[in-house]
Amino acid sequence: MIYIDNNATTRVADEVIQEMLPYLEQFYGNPSSMYGFADTVNKKVQQARAQVAEFINADPGEIIFTSCGTESDNAAINAAINAFPQKKHIIATEVEHPAIRSLCFHLQDKKGYKVTFVPVDKKGRLDFDTLYKAMSDDTAIVSVMWANNETGVIFPIAEIAEKVKEKGIWFHTDAVQGAGKIPIDVKAAGVDMLSLSGHKIHAPKGIGVLYVRKGIKFSPFLIGGHQEKGRRGGTENTASIIALGKACELAKANIPLMNTQVREIRDYLETRLLDEIPATSVNGDRGNRLPNTLSIGFDAVEGESILMLMNQAGICASSGSACTSGSLDPSHVLMAMQVPFKSAHGTIRFSLSHYNTKAEMDTIVETLIPAIDRLRQMSPFWKDGKVV
Amino acid sequence: MIYIDNNATTRVADEVIQEMLPYLEQFYGNPSSMYGFADTVNKKVQQARAQVAEFINADPGEIIFTSCGTESDNAAINAAINAFPQKKHIIATEVEHPAIRSLCFHLQDKKGYKVTFVPVDKKGRLDFDTLYKAMSDDTAIVSVMWANNETGVIFPIAEIAEKVKEKGIWFHTDAVQGAGKIPIDVKAAGVDMLSLSGHKIHAPKGIGVLYVRKGIKFSPFLIGGHQEKGRRGGTENTASIIALGKACELAKANIPLMNTQVREIRDYLETRLLDEIPATSVNGDRGNRLPNTLSIGFDAVEGESILMLMNQAGICASSGSACTSGSLDPSHVLMAMQVPFKSAHGTIRFSLSHYNTKAEMDTIVETLIPAIDRLRQMSPFWKDGKVV
Amino acid sequence: MWNYSEKVMEHFLKPKNVGELEGANAIGETGSLNCGDALKLYLKVNENERIIDASFMTFGCASAVASSSALTEIIKGMTLDDAAKVTNDDIADYLGGLPKEKMHCSVMGQAALKKAIADFRGIQILEKPGEMICECFDVTDLEIIDAVKNNG
Ligand SMILES: Cc1ncc(COP(=O)(O)O)c(C=O)c1O
Ligand SMILES: Cc1ncc(COP(=O)(O)O)c(C=O)c1O
Ligand code: FES
Ligand code: FES
Questions:
Q1: Residue C129 domain-assigned?
Q2: Which of B300, B334, B337 has the alpha carbon at shortest distance from B319?
């Protein structure tokens, strides 16, 4: 099997499983309990918190463990809403993940909020002008993702954060996709809140992080017990927290690899596909992308069909964000970029990890050449080697 | 080590770990992805959903996986608030877990809600009169726990649900502690929503369930992707979901054991402690309690000191709800029951699982007799064998 | 669990000077059964105002017991004037530190000592028994405020 869908989810690293297993099997105590048995767990959770903090250059006290990237995103917006109940405006982008985007629609439709969705250009780059002009005294929070999950396009977070903070507005970034692929430094970037998700960086599913800068008046999204210093109720997911700590340590160490070996392999795949399959185009700003992501459109064929043929060859990729697969429309990201329908429908996202090899890329290319050809031969929109 | 703090959290059953491991190690795909690799996971998630449904006599489509009991509780209240935006009254009890109670305080203090907290009597039994009289057209939801986590006192959920439903009001129950100890049947009980938490029934931490009756106009609490049929955003925590399915299957099979062997051992511990340590009393309705729970107060000594001495002997118990340990006050549950301070401060909760043995109970008694004696000898409130 | 030092555990498990003190001529009491911690301190003071013996009775957590034990060890042999300068920080230091959430347990020692000295000197301290409720909760409140500050 060739797994090349790492922006959807990743293989849990063996080292991570080894690290977490004892805390499932043996040390199952609640870290806050009053016995030595719980201490072992508590110390290890503290270590994990330090590892996560180190990964993004935060202080351990600024790390809140959540259940996923979606919860982190929801919690960030919720905190702003609670901190500024009188402010009824939110700024996000058109290409945010549904964890931000759908929440914004909900707030707009049901809770009387006005949301500015900042558009992107054809290469997926933000329209800064719209963003900055939309800021007002009524704006509770600005949320801009660090990098896009579908195209890999990276946004200049430090620059945006600076402009937003100048106005005294809270700034949140969804770094779920940026993390582990490019360096993330919350202090250098100057963000107030930042979301991470474990399963994108070789930790298990069901664990996430919300970084909350010291000084931010945070109110919890999950309200319950005093866990996470009263910032997130619910018994601590100890084994997964410990797993995430280890995963962050590994991810930090792997970032150079991502930007050399993984990038080279991705570029190799991209070049071969562009060279060897006609009427093929890359979505997103090729000059400013995550090193592991390739969103590529094959004109006049349909994504699901391509996926099925790849699946026959044991290749796992995706035709858009995992969250929107199953839906019929091109993803909201491709729509926002005004990718022409002819290639949007035939878009495949390849997302690599350091487990991928160059040999796998050859297999993919050699699978895709005949697959695309076959599909085009039966496509009413393809004739004589081009789109009609 | 003697672990007797199973209302706080439980040991993950070996069978459960075996069941989930392949979905961490090998089958890490997203269940909603478009490749065969994901299918394996998807089928197993469906099986787990069926196992959970079977456990509480629900339909699989009525099961929503969440990250914990707290999230389930929060989500239930949130759904009612969204369904009836004009209704500004909520009914809960004084002895709910913080996942309901603190949320209610938040809604009261910050969101303009009025909350009726139904009181309990000295044995921890609900004041039904107050409950029923508080119901009005303005009531969005009534939430009453199935069984209390500290005392184990069981509430007559079917009876309450019937009265609440007669008025057309939504009824939610937090069955986090009831589940796995006494039979839970959502259809027979006639509840609209019900919360479960995995780590209380030998599944890992970080997985929960919200049962939502078909016909209830549910709106998601975590807003994001289309997972859980749009009822809970966030990539599915596949390994833990699969673990929970298995845990539910085991829990169902173990309920008879809980009500024979475990109950007998608990009763044995209770009798010995009452007989052999003077000035000792049981908190809560002894006639109507979970079979595994014993909340017992030792006059004139302080709980933490008892826990420390037990810890020296390798015994893990708790002095109240795990969530409130670390605070100085007796828990809100003991306060609501008006347990006298002299025994409230010296209350220990023993909560058994089927892993506990009668021999362990003997060790506990033999540890406690000298421990309580020593602490009383240094207590200014104990003289000549009684409280002063 | 609290991160108690070895010294705290030692003084909790094998407290020194436990019990009523025969012939005590100075007694200080603080706390109550209601607030969850209380300390009764007994001193035997000689004509030179030197503490020749001390003992305690404590109802409270492990650090309350350890603090009481430590206090009696610290002040034995001191003059009342010197003892009056003993602070809760001295008690905590003697124990190799206390978790910050537990610092108030040592405050109880300082308070009882103050009262015992006043008792010996025949000074009325205008505090109702049970005052410790407030002190206890004061600290707790401060901690909460602190925690809130830290978070936001
Ligand atoms: C009655 C009750 N409800 C809810 C919870 C919260 O569950 P969790 O820790 O999984 O969030 C607990 C346990 O802590 C509980 O005992
Ligand atoms: C950019 C981005 N944000 C948020 C999420 C949500 O993360 P999770 O699935 O952990 O909730 C994802 C992944 O699905 C993502 O790619
Ligand atoms: S033809 Fe199958 S999805 Fe449209
Ligand atoms: S005496 Fe230690 S908590 Fe109060």
A1: no
A2: B334
Domain assignment present for C131: no
B275: Cα separation from own chain's centroid: 29
Nearest residue to B107 via CA among B141, B154, B133: B141
**Residue A208, ligand 2, Cβ within 6 A:** yes
| C128: in domain | no
Residues 315-344 of B with CB under 8 A from C: 326-330, 341-342
Which of A37, A210, A229, A232 is the best mutation test for C, with the most CBs of C within 10 A? A229
Domain containing C58 equals 6-123
At B80, the pLDDT band (50, 70, 90 cuts) reads very high
Q: Which two tokens stand for residue A292?
A: 């592991």
- What local confidence, expressed as pLDDT, does residue A2 receive? 98
Confidence of residue C102 (pLDDT cuts 50, 70, 90): confident
C60-93: per-residue pLDDT in tens?
999 999 999 999 999 999 999 999 999 999 999 9
CB contact under 8 A, A325 and B36: no
ipTM of the complex: 0.92
pLDDT value of position A54: 98
Collect all residues with Cβ–Cβ distance below 8 Å to B176 and sequence separation of at least 6: B69, B72, B97, B145, B149, B195, B196, B197, B200
Asked if B70 lies within 8 A of A224 by C-beta distance, the reply is yes
User: Residue A31 has what DSSP assignment?
Assistant: T
What are the backbone angles phi and psi of residue C29, rounded to the nearest 5°?
-130, 135
Out of A37, A71, A226, closest to residue B234 by CB: A71
Q: How many structural domains is chain C composed of?
A: 1
**The pLDDT of residue B34:** 82
End-to-end CA distance of chain B: 35
H/E run at residue B382:
strand B382-383
CA–CA separation, B239 vs B31, rounded Å? 11
- Ligand 4 binding site (Cβ under 6 Å of any ligand atom): B 328; C 36-37, 60-61, 63-64, 102, 105, 108, 136
For residues B357 and B344, what is the distance between their CA atoms, to the nearest angstrom? 27
Contact check, Cβ <8 Å, A34/C147? no
- Residue B339, CA atoms < 13 Å, CB-side half-sphere: 29
Which range is least confidently modeled, A51-65, B155-169, B308-322?
A: B308-322
Tell me the CATH number at C90. 3.90.1010.10
CB A203 within 8 A of CB A247: yes
CA distance B117 to B123: 17
Amino acid C129: pLDDT: 46
- pLDDT number for residue B187: 98
The residues of A carrying an active-site annotation are 323
Q: Is the pLDDT of residue C150 over 60?
A: no
- Closest chain B residue to C99 measured between Cα atoms? B326
DSSP B328-377: SSPPHHHHHTT--HHHHTTEEEEE--TT--HHHHHHHHHHHHHHHHHHHH
Q: Domains of chain B, with CATH numbers?
A: 2-6+255-367 (3.90.1150.10), 14-251 (3.40.640.10)
CB pairs under 8 A between A and B: 248
Q: Closest chain A residue to B99 measured between Cα atoms?
A: A224
For A91-126, write each residue's pLDDT tens digit: 999 999 999 999 999 999 999 999 999 999 999 999
What is the amino acid identity at position C125? I
Burial of C32 (0-12, 13-18, 19+ CB in 10 A): buried
Confidence at residue B284, expressed as pLDDT on a 0 to 100 scale: 98
Span B306-317, mean pLDDT? 96
The residue of chain C with its CA nearest to that of B327 is: C140
Q: Which parts of chain A sit beneath pLDDT 50? A: 321-325
* pLDDT recorded at residue C127: 53
Residue C133, in any domain of the structure: no
